[in-house]
Design a protein that fits this description.
about 500 residues; alpha/beta; 16-stranded mixed sheet; two-stranded parallel ribbon; 17 helices; 18 strands; about 30% helix; about 20% strand
């Protein structure tokens, strides 16, 4: 007895509900729930077929889909082509997938993701005649392989060199030297991710910067190189940037950048491109350079971003793989700036790089009021005994405005040893304005770490005493989550 418009609203909720956005197998089934609806009765079928745009009707084609029979059964809806991971078996021939790709005028999404044992299939698809034609309706393209050292290089003729409606492009371990040409046609691109880029996929930074300048709709950008530099560039470093600033192209919608590679590459791009609305910047450098003089473009770039240059909280996390420094945003629940310092065989180098980072202006840590120090429980750092506490003191000295120090349980002995050396008339040299030390797992009735106890006793003799309190990390995380719900009015 429901009218058609009410039925349509119910169908819309049923088909397009995004409860499992990140769980791809469930999301794939959701995309084809409209097929269940049209089999209920003729009226339901009519309601569904009369509103293909409202219900976002799509046909999902996997290696097991009998493509030719399926396409003859249904109206010419847009096609989503998926192959790999959960729906891929070694016994399935690529015929069905290639048959779907031959409908280049209908394919709107392509997701070809292969593990190392089956990555040869990716080359079969990407070099097939079907994928050398223009895909004028394509909006999403993901190509993933994990077999490094053997990468199927995409030919310049891939997608006919044009994809005018492309909004998402994600290449993982797939080199594409002809990418700049394709991007010149992708003026609606919103998300560009080039991860695990091998030597064969290297594109000079000046060429990439010129290409990026045309992507005025871009919102998210990811560069992740596998190696420091391509073989032909290993013998010499690029000259320093010119003293006078270059004219920069503006990316008006870019809000997030993730970069892992050589600092020179990022410097070259930042000298030519600017992003006034950037809110998130995640950086990992291979070449251990974290100073104002070596990275002038990066530090100037951060200085122009209010969301990046004035954080209130700072997190330092130590793991076996890296030291990660995070600065959350003041206005939202994401991290505005993340700098990762990869670990090497010499553990003293990451700590000295951390000291260099903290004394630089990336960002000005001297204004932070809350500092959190964390050591990984599952993958703790391999500290060397010859690392002097003076290096730690140099790091902590940078946080001159810190009022609250939060120490995760594993980091207490390390920091306590540093603070203990400051009890002989030097108690205010580090953390001169400190008011509270919060210790995870500490109970007021239990014993206090000797180093913390001596430091607190020394501070009582000054005009800046310090209190020690129990810190319930899980409770604080829950309170922060509830705060974000209130911000969004939920």
């Amino acid at each position: 007895m429901l009218p058609d418009d009410v039925l349509l609203k119910i169908f819309d909720f049923y088909v397009n509900e995004e409860l499992c956005e990140d769980y791809k197998p469930v999301k794939e089934r959701r995309m084809q729930e409209w097929i269940t609806l049209v089999h209920v009765c003729r009226r339901w079928r009519n309601v569904v077929f009369y509103s293909p745009r409202r219900l976002n009707l799509r046909l999902v084609c996997t290696p097991k889909t009998p493509v030719r029979d399926t396409l003859d059964t249904w109206p010419p809806f847009p096609l989503i082509v998926r192959s790999g991971y959960w729906n891929d078996t070694s016994s399935v021939a690529p015929d069905n997938t290639i048959a779907a790709l031959e409908h280049n005028d209908r394919v709107c999404q392509i997701n070809l993701s292969y593990l190392s044992l089956t990555s040869t299939k990716l080359e079969i698809f990407t070099t097939s005649a079907a994928m050398q034609k223009p895909f004028l309706e394509l909006t999403d393209l993901r190509l993933v392989t994990f077999r490094f050292g053997w990468e199927p290089i995409l030919p310049d003729s891939f997608l006919g060199g044009t994809a005018p409606r492309l909004r998402l492009l994600d290449l993982h371990g797939v080199p594409f030297p002809g990418l700049p040409k394709l991007l010149l046609s992708a003026t609606q691109l919103v998300h560009l991710s080039l991860s695990a880029v091998p030597f064969s996929g290297y594109i000079p930074p000046e060429v990439m910067a010129t290409t990026l300048s045309t992507l005025t709709s871009l919102e998210k950008l990811c560069f992740h190189f596998l190696y420091l530099q391509p073989r032909h560039a290993l013998q010499s470093r690029r000259p320093p940037p010119p003293p006078l600033p270059l004219t920069r192209s503006i990316l008006p919608r870019l809000t997030k950048v993730i970069f892992k590679g050589a600092s020179e590459y990022l410097e070259e791009i930042l000298s030519r491109v600017d992003a006034p609305r950037l809110e998130e910047l995640h950086i990992t450098f291979f070449d251990q350079i974290i100073s104002d003089s070596d990275l002038p473009q990066l530090f100037q770039f951060i200085g122009r971003r209010p969301t990046l240059r004035a954080p209130e909280k700072g997190y330092i996390a130590f793991t076996v793989y890296a030291i990660v420094v995070k600065f959350p945003s003041r206005t939202s629940d994401f991290d505005a700036l993340i700098v990762e310092i990869p670990s090497t065989e010499s553990e003293e180098w990451p700590l000295s790089s951390l000291a260099q980072l903290c004394t630089s202006s990336l960002p000005p840590v001297s204004t932070l009021e809350d500092l959190y120090i964390f050591e990984g429980r599952m993958d703790p750092p391999r500290w060397q005994n010859n690392v002097e506490n003076t290096l730690w003191q140099e790091i902590l000295h940078s946080f001159a405005a810190a009022k609250n120090l939060h120490l995760y349980k594993e980091s207490v002995p390390r920091i306590a040893a540093v603070l203990q050396e400051l009890v002989e008339g030097r108690a205010t040299e580090v953390f001169p304005t400190l008011e509270n030390i919060f210790l995870e797992g500490y109970q007021l009735s239990g014993p206090l770490h000797e180093g913390i106890e001596k430091f607190v006793a020394a501070r009582r003799l000054t005009s800046h005493p310090v209190a020690v309190s129990h810190w319930d990390k899980d409770r604080e995380s829950k309170q922060e989550e509830e705060k974000q719900w209130r911000i969004y009015g939920l």
